[in-house]
Amino acid sequence: MHLKSNSGCAVKRLCTKYAKGFQLTLLLSLLMFGSTASQALNSREQRLVETVTRIYGDRAGLRVTTWRKEMALYHGLPEHKQLAKVNQFFNQLNFVNDDKLWGKNDYWATPLEFLGSNAGDCEDFTIAKYFSLLELGVSDKKLRLVYVKAITLNQFHMVLAYYSSPSAEPLILDNINPEITTASKRRDLLPIYSFNGKNLWLMKSQNGQLAGKSSRLSLWNDLRAREKSLQLCKLR
């Protein structure tokens, strides 16, 4: 089976509406860290900043620096607070469709590409949150990237689901609606399939029906390969 995400995502103006409230926070962070951009970062993090700066410019490097410093602050927090912090941080970025940003019909950006470009579509918001929470120590078993249909908007969309336990109702992290709520409160979303770093589920039931490994998703494989090699796509 070969599954590929459609390029359609939720409407740009809704994402922009909720992102504007956080833009000042990100700007203040950039100004605060700007004069000491490389301090307090380990050698790996400095390499990330240098790589992003080379491809996307100085302000992109500052965004990555801010991300790394924020992540250091989130370590040790209770998981529910980590969810809120990560969700809020990435919801500051701008919504732009793949064809306009990358010149491709469907492209899943790595967190570095997302931060470097300061924009992305729903998959990019979700992927960045997923990898950030993994880094903070949240188990992969608790997280799923969920491909849904946004019923009201009549468009395909992606969100991140968090399960506090295998039988728990998941919490939904979304770039359209910044409030983290339980799945039952998101009647505007119709799940289609979900996956994490290992498995793929078809949403034929509340918990989903295991359909194999997530490696069956070609866009996911491409993303993981670029993430490991630090390969960054240039903007259109």
**Biggest sheet layout:** 7 strands, antiparallel
> Which regions have little confidence, pLDDT < 50, spanning 5+ residues?
1-7, 32-38
Q: Measured on Cα atoms, how large is the radius of gyration?
A: 17 Å
Instruction: State the share of residues found in helices, binned by percent.
Output: 40-55%
Helix-strand topology string: HHHHEHHEHEEEEEEEH
Keywords: Signal
Protein name: Sulfate adenylyltransferase
InterPro entries: Transglutaminase-like_Cys_pept
Pfam families: Peptidase_C93
3D structure, described in words:
The chain has 236 residues and is an alpha+beta fold. The chain has one domain (12-229): C8orf32 fold. The chain is 44% helix and 17% strand. The protein is built from eight helices and nine strands. The chain has helices at 12-34, 43-56, 58-74, 79-90, 98-101, 111-117, 122-135, 218-229, and strands at residues 94-95, 119-120, 143-150, 155-162, 171-173, 181-182, 189-195, 199-202, 209-213. The strands form two sheets. It has a seven-stranded antiparallel beta sheet, covered by helices on one side. α3 crosses α6. The longest helix is centred in the first third of the chain and has 23 residues, at 12-34.
